[in-house]
Design goal:
heterodimer; A: mainly alpha; B: about 280 residues; alpha/beta; 3 domains; six-stranded mixed sheet; 10 strands; globular; Energy-coupling factor transporter transmembrane protein EcfT (chain A)
Chain lengths: ~260, ~280
């Protein structure tokens, strides 16, 4: 893998690395929910401090965090801009037709920016500290109650792990195909619209063909090694629920109560 | 002296500023003249693929100078010059059939020439000519490339690069996964381009028979450094004990064990036969 980006895993042995993946997924979902509940400086500040604590506990550098946010920067900026230009409460600082910049609009824009950033960092901490396999195991554990409703939990879990497993493979292949097409004179991201569509096609079609081939081969390999979709199976990687996991869950829940109590109504 | 390719003290740092950082190439010096047939060998991870990607600007050197046809390739090279170099240096990657995408065989092969500014008509003429030269018959021209056999797909993909009429052809293991016949066809085609059109060939290979039978120079990479850069005959004499030997050299060694010492180290089967004939005449 070439770059550390959103969604990639950095092996390590920090406190957060060692937590149970099911707890981490649950905690991230809860924290994202708390972030959506937060609506003033006080509870955003509390969440930010908590996330800073997680960064320290997971030994993640600020640089890595910035790299993770970078791909989303345009989306964030766009949303912020919309907030600034179309917020219509509070003192008006500047106006041009229906577009005006107001004090409340500006405040909302900053809060939206913080909200986005916090959510992305939260998700990044999960993927940075949890291997794809562990995430799949965690999801399987969390959705396991659904098997009493007839949901094929084990199959869903193996689907998730296969999908995650093939991301780097397909990314590598995409790089190779990109290089091959560049060598044939394609310069991606330039030229007229028709030329651009054609250059993108020269990537998408080969990668689609290739993923179908991978799927076929993998299905054959699974059948050949006697894989049965609904068999009960044990797992090589065992995750145990420790006192630390319980402690973390309690802390996250208390945090949620605090955030809700601090809400501005 | 004019060199077509000139690499001067080149380093390549893979994934700098990340935990995956790795010095893939170190202090590479490589000068190639027009019309050479050069093979690059070395174990997996020795830097072969990284080296060839420098030759048409898919990657740029971390340190040192890469010059192709007198144009220096680095991160500041203008897009126009880069396109110019890419039209001069054709690059055939491993399993090139993976890059096929167009509706018809003809469209796919015309894609390269079209990108490099040939008109639609010129591109099609070039594509047809090239397809015939790689042994794809005209009744296949309007078929989808995905309906072809593996060997045919490989040849169409190679034609897609050859149709650009490059002066230098860089190939990364072009015969992997082909049957004996398909392999021979492709190697003969490359040899023909080298001899007839004076196309410079740079080929990454693991097959020592290809090194001895086809190339006139071999570059042996080890841990990102050039360990040897000599003619195959000298190479297999010097490295008899470290690399897997081509059949003709193996035969030479076997004969030697049985007390028959040939006058020279043979590189091809024909040379071997000739040397054995000479020896037997002398005995008689």
């Amino acid at each position: 893998m070439n770059h550390v980006v959103f969604g990639s895993y950095l092996p390590g042995n920090s406190f957060i690395h060692r937590l149970n993946p099911a707890l981490k997924i649950l905690a991230v979902l809860l924290l994202i929910t708390w972030t959506l509940f937060a609506n003033n400086w006080l509870n955003y500040g509390l969440l930010a401090i908590f996330i800073l604590l997680q960064l320290i506990l997971s030994a993640t550098s600020v640089k890595t965090v910035f790299r993770a946010i970078r791909p989303f920067l345009w989306l964030i900026m766009f949303t912020v801009l919309i907030q600034i230009l179309f917020g219509n409460q509070g003192t008006i600082y500047w106006q041009w037709g229906p577009i005006k910049i107001t004090s409340v609009g500006l405040e909302m824009a900053v809060l939206i920016f913080i909200r986005f950033t916090l959510i992305i960092i939260e998700a990044t901490i999960l993927t940075l500290t949890t291997s794809p396999n562990a995430i799949a195991t965690g999801v399987e554990y969390l959705i396991s109650p659904l098997k009493y409703l007839g949901v094929p939990v084990a199959t869903i879990s193996i689907m998730i792990s296969i999908a995650l497993r093939f991301i780097p493979t397909l990314v590598d292949e995409l790089h190779t195909i990109m290089n091959a097409q560049k060598s044939r004179g394609v310069s991606f991201g330039s030229g007229g619209i028709i030329k651009r569509v054609k250059s993108i096609c020269s990537l998408i079609i080969p990668i689609l063909v290739s993923s179908f081939r991978h799927a076929d081969n993998l299905a054959d390999a699974l059948s050949a090694s006697g894989y049965e979709a609904n068999a009960t199976r044990s797992s090589y990687q065992q995750f145990h629920w420790t006192i630390f996991d319980t402690l973390c869950l309690v802390v996250v829940l208390i945090l949620g109560i605090l955030v809700i109590l601090m809400r501005k109504i | 002296m004019d060199y077509q390719i000139n690499l001067n003290n080149v380093d390549y740092l893979y994934a700098p500023n990340t935990p995956f950082v790795h010095l893939a190439l170190h202090g590479i010096n490589l000068k190639v003249k027009k019309g050479e047939f050069l093979t690059i060998i070395g174990s997996t991870g020795s830097g072969k693929s990284t080296l060839i990607k420098l030759l048409n600007g898919l990657q740029t050197a971390t340190r040192g100078i890469v010059e192709i046809n007198g144009i220096e390739l680095n991160s500041k090279t203008k897009k126009k010059n880069l396109q110019e170099i890419r039209s001069q240096v054709g690059m055939i990657f491993q399993s090139p059939e993976k890059q096929l995408f167009a509706d018809t065989v003809l469209d796919d092969v015309s894609f390269g020439p079209l990108n490099f500014g040939y008109s639609k008509k010129e591109s099609e003429t070039l594509a047809k000519k090239t397809l015939l030269s790689v042994g794809i018959k005209s009744e296949l021209f309007n078929r989808s490339p995905f309906e072809l056999s593996g060997g045919q797909m490989r040849r169409v993909a190679i034609a897609g690069v050859l149709a650009m009429q490059p002066q230098v052809l860089v190939l990364d293991e072009p015969t992997v996964g082909l049957d004996a016949n398909g392999k021979k066809n492709i190697l003969e085609l490359i040899k023909k381009l080298n001899v007839k059109n004076k196309t410079t060939i740079i080929m990454v290979t693991h097959d020592m028979n290809v090194v001895s039978e086809y190339s006139n120079r071999v570059v042996y990479l080890n841990k990102g450094q050039v360990q040897a850069d000599i003619i195959p005959k000298q190479f297999f004499a010097d490295y008899q004990d470290t690399v897997i030997l081509p059949d003709a050299v193996k035969m030479y060694k076997l004969l030697k064990q049985h007390g028959i010492v040939l006058d020279e180290l043979p590189m091809t089967k024909n040379e071997l036969i000739k040397l054995i004939m000479q020896k037997s005449k002398m005995v008689r």
